[in-house]
Amino acid sequence: MTDHPSHSDQGRGHALFDHFRLRRLVRENHGTAITQLAVHSRHPNLVATVGANQASVYDNEHCGNHLDIVTNYTAPASAAHTDDEPRFTCCAWLRVHPHPMDAWLAIGGHDGVIRLLSIARSAEFRRLGAPTAAGAALPALVELQSHPTLPVLLAAYADGSVRYWRLDDERDVSGAETSAETKCSLRLTAEDCQRVWRLKASALYISADGTYFLAGTRTGEIRRVMLPEALMSATTMMADNDDGELLMQPHYTAIDCISMADDDAIVSKSASGKLVIGSLGLREVVRTVQLHDENIDTRSRFGLSGDSQGRVTVYQRYTGEVLREFHHRRANRPVLCCAFAREDRNLLVVGEDGCIWRWDYVDDATLAEWAKFHAELQERQPAATTGSA
């Protein structure tokens, strides 16, 4: 592995988190769990969440210190089952798409349908994996990953399959195929994706250059699957007999998160809380650490792990050293997703309580000003009490 942090880097990590304070608490109106949040890679002020049958997008930067709502999407119940509202499980910002002046958000749910939302238009405009004419539907969605260089979305489903969806079809903005029921202009069925892999996948990660993806499986394996350029020009579904290359099996339970710390270091975590750092070049495990038992974010400069008691632990990704633990006395429900934003200056946490907790970096000058204010307030309190008597 390369680019290991120095002791001074770790020291700066400790000092950085000494300055974090809980600054914002937002409760979403659906009153149920927020299952995932996603921070836009190019516009980090955009933060998306999904919970129940809603997706919300917030501005995390341009409205002072607030988390102000930009748009909210509520999925309608299906026409066939009026009480059957889709429940969203995952979301991802599209890094490449045909309309660079817009921001596209993909959301997936228990109904197996991926809905694409335009933030500029505040509207759903496309569905991927809609039921076929015969009524066949895809399994529930587990994870969505956006390709870094192509208008492509990879989706993992509850049956362990992974599907490759192209997003460069221009029919989505024409309105020619708009459905009266959904108001979206293009509905693609399961037969319209370009590729299906049967991998027993439970977690995905696409490489930085987009040439392959890693799949963490239900059985604890890590597999690498190459992404041929021919997929972008395919007009029909390609064969799905590629099981990928087995790199290692560092876990014995399902992998719920996988990423890469650099070009060689694969970071994965199982549902049991076991964190493993493996070498892509050596095809072997380098380090194992036991962490908390819930959601983990391995895509930041630092690792994050949330537990069933509402705590979030920040750790050093290469060594597993715990740098800081964040917890508030009012947070006592399981953490389902956590992520850094604004160059690790914001820590965003969501979970079963239906709230967004945001911890912010506060500089020395502001901390000193706060300390001065509280000291002056304490000095005035006795005089105020005497005067009221």
Automatic annotation (TrEMBL):
InterPro entries the record matches: PcG_WD-repeat, WD40/YVTN_repeat-like_dom_sf, WD40_repeat_dom_sf, WD40_rpt
Species whose genome carries this gene: Thamnocephalis sphaerospora
Record-linked Pfam families: WD40
Record-given protein name: WD40-repeat-containing domain protein
Entry keywords, A to Z: Repeat, Transcription, Transcription regulation, WD repeat
SMART domains: WD40
PANTHER family: POLYCOMB PROTEIN
Family: Belongs to the WD repeat ESC family.
SUPFAM superfamilies the record matches: WD40 repeat-like (SSF50978)
